[in-house]
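Lecture notes, unit on protein representations.

Consider one protein chain, 325 amino acids long.
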Amino acid sequence: MATRIPILSEVIPAGEGAMTIDAPMIARMTDLAGDLAVNLSVALIILIATVLAARWISGITRRMLSRVAGFRNDRTVISFVVQVVRVVVYVVGFIAVLQRLGVQTTSIIAVLGAASLAVGLALQGTLSNVAAGVLLLVLRPYRVGDVIEVGGATGTVQRLDLFVTQMSNANNHKIVVPNSRVLGDVIINLTGQKTRRIEVLFAVGYTANLKQACAVLSGVARAHERVLTDPEPWVGVTDLRDSAVEVTLQAWVEVDDWWQVRADLIQQGKEALDAAGVEIPFPHQVAVAYDPPAPGPDPVEQTKPEPEPQTPPPAPRRRRLGRKA
């Protein structure tokens, strides 16, 4: 018992000293946890405010551009500028969140500046799409709502973004083409002009009256209410095929009326030619009876004569030489 009392007397002061040493550390950890909670809360508030501010500022930008006479009917410029403004607000808000969390943004910018060559090479395709989007916005070869043909795809332009051009075709398929490919390829704007020409090819027989056929088709085009009178419709013989004469009908219409008027001219032109008795040839197939001849006999194999045995030539005789006595 006497040996245990000194041990307890030594342990109790040591525990009290440890508690006095850990108290400042615990207080410091508590302060750090409180600061971290405050920073996270403020960062979350900044993030929410950034999202709301991006929507608000983009809405204001859209309304301001809609009041400008040059951009009022151009949705391409409005959507592009609104997207750029939204991205800029997001970037500013993200930098503010990083600063609130204690991240040194200046050092990050310095590192990015030092590695700009590597970043530029890595993002070469992406940056080229952005640069191509800006050039498309400046050159404006097409606008939102135009029907274009690019890269083998045809569709109506829905949006012009920073990186891609979005289109939809007649089957309502979504087509996404990178801006760099759009700028580097041939762009055919089918609705870039106010008027558009319709060209319909008809085939008549060689025995038909060509002047009558041209007059019938010309009357069909002139009688259509949506066909423009300036330029006037044109009909003429354009080719001599193997079994028909090609007659071409050309008429000018408004861009929005192109599809329907073309279908009307094809149907009405065919009906008018039939009513006028003009023959429209088409391929015919004639069945001919064919009785193949019976196959001939198989060829007889001729046997080769056996070669005659050859007798070897007789061996030469040897002469014996006698000795003289």
